[in-house]
Write a structure and sequence with these properties.
The chain is of the alpha+beta class. About 20% of the residues lie in helices and about 30% in strands. It contains nine helices and 19 strands. Strands 9, 10, 12, 14, 15, 16, 18 and 19 form an eight-stranded mixed beta sheet that branches. It has a six-stranded mixed beta sheet with strand order 2-1-3-4-5-6. A three-stranded antiparallel beta sheet has the order 11-13-17, with no helix packed on it. Helix 2 (about 30-40) crosses helix 4 (about 180-200) and helix 6 (about 230-245) crosses helix 8 (about 280-290). The two termini are about 65 Å apart.
Length: about 500
């Protein structure tokens, strides 16, 4: 939440809080101090809130408060008026809303047994509101009402027996209880995030790992979009475009570079399957805000902010991988664009082929780019696979698998067939613009023609680095091993 407020450039606001009482007296906790802690924790980087600490209750006044009163009376201290305040209470504590008991036992002349188990639940509710301090009125819509369930339970075992004239007894039990303190803290933090997020108009639900496609959140986003100004919308979307590499960081300072912003916005809309308009409409606004956080498979937060997530080489080799694959994004302004190379042969999990076998590869780019792929044989000879006469357009769409060759076509035009023992591989390079004419003459030869003077895929990557001094390209390499063809033994089928 702190980083979300910082990226939204929320100005510093003075805030205070009333006491958060518990009229049921069943949850005696310092809820107001929990509110203060939550506000301070979400203001470390953003400095969004400053808490005004002033106590009017004579019973709770201490040395600091007494000194404050003395300095105020002598005009030696200035107490600033807060803009907002929080009020509320622990609205209810319903005990034993769920109570399950189970008892079972046996009885005999020399042995008696007994087992018991019980569980009960308590529901705690917290109401918090945000008010305008100047008018002492609660702001409509700035309210939070949440409940949490805490449980208690136990189980026990009794054994009793008799041997001749002597008897024995055995009893063991286990009880557990969830305290109300941690429950209230959870409710307070949830309420403070919700109230401040509504007030600052930031997608606070992302900090609660809640699904943004929920109708309530979509309705809230729509209200913010309709009430906000176009300048605010463009600022948020521009930050998202910069983090993904569609724009440079310096463009934040350029107020007149409208054409560059529209072009970058159009590429972003195209990569996300939206209608390309170059205008910040609601769909674009919602999609940009959705990318503020990243979740793992378990729904846990992995990242806050619009920062890139992939900039270093990644080694994906393991025992289950089809082949060795590595990728790298180059350039200071390069976002998390990636190229996913996969071997698509029927038998998955292979990293080795025999001479004469066919290899099928797919390449998928995470955003719209100009793509070129090269094949290297075991002796180091290199040819270009795409663009080629059958597919002379180098520009590809985002998240669209490019088949090498196109095995879905009855006439694919070419095949990738292993030629000699050794290591073969494919290198794919993605750029924002078509840089074919900037490459050396040897690399501009016709497709499927050996490139003179080019030895291996490393030479190809080297030439791209030379013609793009700023390194604004993404590459990915996949290699596989080729073994000699096995000769079938006499009398056996190969």
């Amino acid at each position: 939440m702190d980083r979300l407020l910082r990226d939204a450039q929320v100005p510093t606001t003075l805030i205070t809080s009333k006491q958060i009482p518990d009229y049921s007296t069943r949850a005696p906790v310092a809820a107001k101090e929990m509110v203060v802690t939550a506000l301070l924790q979400m203001s470390r980087l953003s400095n969004a809130f400053r808490y005004v600490d002033y106590e009017v209750d004579l019973v709770r006044q201490d040395t600091v408060q007494n000194l404050t009163n003395i300095l105020l009376n002598n005009n030696q201290i200035q107490l600033q008026r807060p803009s907002l305040y929080l009020s509320g209470a622990v609205s209810f504590v319903d005990q034993n809303v769920l109570n399950n008991r189970m008892d079972v036992g046996t009885s005999g002349s020399r042995l008696e047994t007994g087992y018991s188990k019980n569980r009960n639940a308590t529901v705690i509710g917290l109401e918090l509101h945000l008010g305008d301090f100047r008018t002492r009125t609660l702001i409509p819509g700035m309210d939070s009402a949440n409940e949490v369930v805490i449980g208690n339970g136990g189980q026990g075992l009794d054994l009793a027996g008799r041997i001749s004239e002597y008897g024995w007894q055995f009893n063991v039990g286990k009880d557990y209880a969830q305290g109300s303190g941690a429950a209230i803290r959870t409710l307070v933090e949830l309420a403070v995030i919700e109230l401040t997020g509504k007030w600052a108009r930031v997608p606070y639900w992302q900090c609660l790992t809640m699904e943004q496609t929920h109708p309530n959140f979509q309705r809230q986003l729509r209200d913010w979009y309709d009430e906000g100004t176009m300048g605010v919308h463009q600022s948020l979307v521009k930050r998202s475009l910069i983090s993904k590499g569609y724009m440079s960081e310096a463009s934040m300072l350029e107020t007149n570079n409208v054409s560059a912003f529209r072009a970058a916005l159009g590429r972003f809309q195209s990569d996300n399957g939206m209608v390309v308009t170059g205008v910040v409409d609601f769909n674009t606004y919602e999609r940009a805000l959705r990318d503020f956080v990243s979740l793992d498979m378990d729904g846990n937060l992995m990242r806050y902010g619009w920062s890139p997530t992939a900039s270093d080489p990644v080694d994906m080799r393991n025992s289950k991988q089809v082949a060795a694959s590595s990728g790298k994004s180059y350039g200071k302004n390069e976002g998390p664009r990636s190229i996913n190379l996969q071997i698509e042969n029927v038998m998955m999990g292979r990293s080795q082929f025999e001479v004469g076998e066919q290899v099928f590869v797919s390449a998928t780019v995470s955003r719209a780019s100009h793509l070129a792929c090269y094949l290297s044989n075991a002796t180091g000879g290199v040819i270009r696979l795409i663009p080629n006469p059958m597919s002379n357009q180098s520009q590809v769409s985002a998240n669209q698998a490019i088949r090498l060759p196109d095995w879905m076509s009855p006439n694919p035009g070419y095949m990738i067939e292993t030629a000699s023992p050794g290591t073969e591989g494919v290198l794919c390079v993605a750029t924002d613009d078509d840089v074919t004419q900037r490459l050396p003459e040897a690399m501009r030869t016709e497709a499927f023609t050996p490139m003179p003077g080019i030895q291996g895929l490393k030479d190809v990557a080297k030439h791209y680095t030379e013609v793009l001094p700023k390194g604004q390209f993404t590459s990915s390499t996949m290699e596989w091993r080729v073994a000699p063809r096995r000769i079938a033994e006499p009398g056996k089928r190969g």
